[in-house]
Amino acid sequence: MAEIKIVNPESLGKPLGQYSQITRVKASEYLFIAGQVAADAAGNVIGADDFDAQCVQVFANIGTALASCGAGWGNVVQFTTYLVHSQDIPKFMQYRLREFPRMFANGAYPPNTLLMIDRLVKEAFLLEVQAVAAL
Asked: Which residues are CB-contacts of 12 (< 8 A; sequence separation ≥ 6)?
């Protein structure tokens, strides 16, 4: 089992949302989960024009990927998030504020890098989230 310590050194200041500044990991194996978009197992877009519905599907896909390898949310050590529209940042923060306490019950949220991009593989997709987990 991985030894995962998520910390926020005072010298870096308080995070601006539901993430932490640093994850320190001792692990024997890592999972690198490709960026997940709001598509179901058949490839259908879920929640076209509905940012919250897309968040739900994206994180469900990450949860499925984790479970397929015998892992869970507590194994996640980093996220990278790509948003198409900057006006969706508050919606993304609201989703995390609402859902992350359930996903990360200990209140230790993995670091997250948030990037704005021009578009994703299909124009209907509003966000993509990549994850790294440790076993």
From this structure: 21, 22
Residue 128 pLDDT > 90:
yes
What is the C-alpha separation between 124 and 84, in angstroms, rounded?
10
- 67-99 b/e with 16+ CB inside 10 Å = b? eeeebebbbbbbbebbbbeeebeebbeebbeee
pTM of this prediction exceeds 0.85: yes
Other Cβ atoms closer than 10 A to 50: 13
Decide: helix, strand or coil at residue 7: strand
Domain ranges of the chain: 3-134
Q: Dump pLDDT digits (tens) for 54-83.
A: 999 999 999 999 999 999 999 999 999 999
CATH number of 3-134: 3.30.1330.40
b/e per residue 124-134 (b: at least 16 CB within 10 A): bbbbbbbbbbb
Rg, C-alpha atoms of the chain: 15
